[in-house]
Specification:
Blueprint (H helix, E strand, L loop, with lengths): L5 E5 L7 E5 L1 E7 L4 E12 L3 E4 L8 E14 L2 E15 L7 E5 L4 E6 L3 E9 L4 E3 L1 E6 L1 E3 L5 E3 L4 E7 L6 E11 L5 E13 L2 E8 L11 E3 L6 E4 L10 E8 L4
Parallel strand pairs: 2-6, 7-21
Antiparallel strand pairs: 1-6, 2-4, 3-4, 3-20, 4-16, 5-8, 6-7, 8-17, 9-15, 9-17, 10-11, 10-16, 12-15, 13-14, 17-18, 17-19
Length: about 250
C-alpha cells in the first residue's frame, strides 16, 4: 500500500509536495480464526493542500499531481533500479469569479480487498518510531467521481478508503492489516487519488491509474505465508520508461 502524490499549482501561488515509494510490499499471515493478513511498505511523504477562491472571471486552476516509484528490475547486464515518474496535469474549465476550490493531491488511497475481509486497520510509523493512525472507511461499495459518476468495487470485492491528514513531511512505514475467514490467495488493487472540491463539486480524481473503472486497474495476487514475503507492485506504466504523463479536465459544478 502506497500513497505518494505531488502538487504544483500553476498560475496561482506556487507550492510543491511529493513522495517516493519502493516497489515492494511485505506481506505476512498470522494464523488464527479468522486469520490476519498484515502488509507493510516504506514511503517518503510530503503532503500539501491548496485552497482559495478565484479572483477573476475565466480563471483556470491548473494542478500537476505526480506519483514516483522505485523498482528493482532484471536486465541483460544484471540487476538495476528503475525510477518511474508519472504526472497527471489536472485543470479546470474557465471558472467564474469567486468560485471556491480546494485541491489536495494527497487524496485518500482506495484499496480493493475481498468482500469477506473484515476489521481493516492501518497505521503509519515515522522514522523516530512515532505511530499515527490512518483513518479507514470499510466496507465501501462505491466512491464519487467527477460529473456525478461513481467508481464501483468489482463483484466479490469491497473498497477500503485510507487517508490521514495528520501525516506530516517525513519517512514512514505504513501497515495495513485485515482479517480473512481462512488462509488463501487473493487479489488486491490499489488506486491513488486526488481530492477535488470546486464550486459545488466534491469528489475523488483517480491519478494512478487514470481510470473510471476498476477493471482497468492491474491486480496484485497475494499468497499469504507464515513467513514474511515480499511482492513487487505493478509498475506505474509498461516497459522500462522513466516518465509518463496525461491531462484531465476537472469537473466544477456552479
Amino acid at each position: 500500500m502506497r500513497l505518494c502524490l505531488a502538487l504544483v499549482l500553476v498560475g496561482l501561488p506556487i507550492a510543491t509536495a511529493g513522495c517516493a515509494f519502493e516497489g515492494q510490499i511485505a506481506v505476512q499471515l498470522f494464523s488464527g480464526a479468522p486469520v490476519t493478513v498484515k502488509q507493510s511498505a516504506k514511503l517518503e511523504f510530503d503532503p500539501h493542500r491548496v485552497q482559495g477562491t478565484t479572483t477573476r472571471a475565466g480563471q483556470v486552476v491548473k494542478v500537476d499531481c505526480s506519483v514516483t516509484g522505485t523498482f528493482d528490475v532484471r536486465e541483460a547486464t544484471g540487476s538495476a533500479v528503475l525510477v518511474q515518474l508519472y504526472v497527471v496535469h489536472l485543470r479546470t474549465h474557465p471558472l467564474p469569479r469567486a468560485t471556491p476550490y480546494q485541491l489536495d493531491c494527497a487524496g485518500p488511497l482506495i484499496v480493493q480487498l475481498p468482500a469477506d475481509a473484515s476489521d481493516v486497520q492501518a497505521t503509519a510509523t515515522s522514522a523516530p518510531e512515532s505511530q499515527l493512525p490512518i483513518s479507514v472507511q470499510a466496507p465501501i461499495t462505491a466512491v464519487p467521481l467527477a460529473s456525478g459518476k461513481r467508481l464501483r468495487a468489482q463483484p466479490g470485492t469491497q473498497f477500503a478508503i485510507l487517508g490521514s491528514p495528520a501525516l506530516s513531511t517525513g519517512g514512514y512505514t505504513v501497515e495495513l492489516a485485515f482479517s480473512l475467514p481462512e488462509a488463501r490467495a487473493f487479489q488486491e488493487k490499489v488506486l491513488y487519488t486526488a481530492l477535488i472540491a470546486c464550486g459545488r463539486s466534491k469528489y475523488l480524481q483517480p491519478i494512478r491509474p487514470l481510470v473510471t473503472s476498476l477493471a482497468r486497474v492491474p491486480a496484485l495476487t497475494i499468497q499469504p505465508s507464515g513467513n514474511e514475503t515480499s511482492f513487487s507492485v505493478p509498475h506505474l506504466f509498461g516497459g522500462i520508461r522513466s516518465y509518463g504523463e496525461a491531462t484531465r479536465t476537472l469537473s466544477c459544478a456552479r
